[in-house]
Amino acid sequence: MLRLFRIGETEIKCSISLIIAGVLAVILGRETEAVIAFVSLTVHEAAHAMLAFRLGYPVRSVEIQPFGFVARLDCTNAPPIDLAAVYAAGPVASITMAAFSSLMESMVPEYAAAKLGLTEYNLLIAAVNMLPAMPLDGGRLLYSAFSSKSQSMAMRALKICGVITGIVFLTMFVIMLVYNAVNLTFAVMGVFLIIAAIKEPIPVNNPISRKRFITGRSSVPVRVIAASEGMSISKAMSMLPAGSYAVLNVIDEELRRIAVIDEKQLMEAAKKLGASAKLSDAVALYRGMML
Questions:
Q1: Which uninterrupted H or E stretch holds 47?
Q2: FRET partner for 135 with CA separation of 20 to 30 A, picked from 63, 87, 188, 282?
Q3: Radius of gyration (Cα) for the chain, nearest Å?
Q4: How far is CA 118 from CA 33, 35, 46, 77, 86, in A?
Q5: Domain boundaries in the chain?
Q6: How buried is residue 121: exposed, middle or buried, by Cβ count under 10 Å (0-12/13-18/19+)?
Q7: CATH topology for 212-287?
Q8: pLDDT tens-digit profile of 153-207?
């Protein structure tokens, strides 16, 4: 992913696969379909980002992909009603775009004669995005309905659904190819769904949910610290506050929380791995049930 520039606190990135997909579209003579897919999916993602921004949730980054723009939103701790609105904004935008295209077909003969397929494509996007699979909107809506205790299990199931959905799209692309019908959309969406579903992080339940950690008859305040997965364990240990018990939210380069490690686990990881090891190694050790 190439970092292009920043707009305020939002980082704009571009996928290298966009160039590859563009070249393939030109070779196969599918430039029009590629443009329609790009524009439609950009409108879909822009709807998510705009509503999240209006509700006061920051947009961490916008990624330019072969299938459009992908907005990385920071609304993890948002109330369920806000999450539902943000996740539903994309399908609503797609349906609105399909309705507008259908209206144009009935009112402008030249537009209808062009047979761009904008109506059908946006209806397809809206329908596909409501499937209960990660990272689709339907999957995120379903995931937000689970309690924190069962979210890890729900995420695993939704990730599997996402991979299966991607495989179905790739299978449809191959079947159409056998019958001399090329549909790049199915291929691109299939690959995207499989990769995105696999990369979707599984939440780790916070080992300390209370604001104070009780030890015997006394208690100490708990402080939550964010630390990059690339940070060394020794650096993380130097951040531990005195007079309180620390819980580290380990985040990746996209600022997504990938794990939660408390102070005791960090110390044990330092003994097993050495202080020069990275937090990502400590996370791997923690997930391997060795701590």
A1: helix 31-54
A2: 282
A3: 23
A4: 9, 10, 17, 35, 23
A5: 2-199, 212-287
A6: buried
A7: CBS-domain (3.10.580)
A8: 888 899 999 999 999 999 999 999 888 887 777 887 888 889 888 888 776 554 4
